[in-house]
Amino acid sequence: MVYKKMSVLKLEEKVINLPDEKIKEMYSLASKINIDTIEELSPALLRICLNAEGGVLKDELGRVIFHLQKTERLNTRIGFEKTLHGALKVNAEEVFKLLEDSEPDAKDLAKELKELLNE
Question: What are the phi and psi torsion angles at 56 (to 5°)?
Answer without folding.
Answer: -60, -35
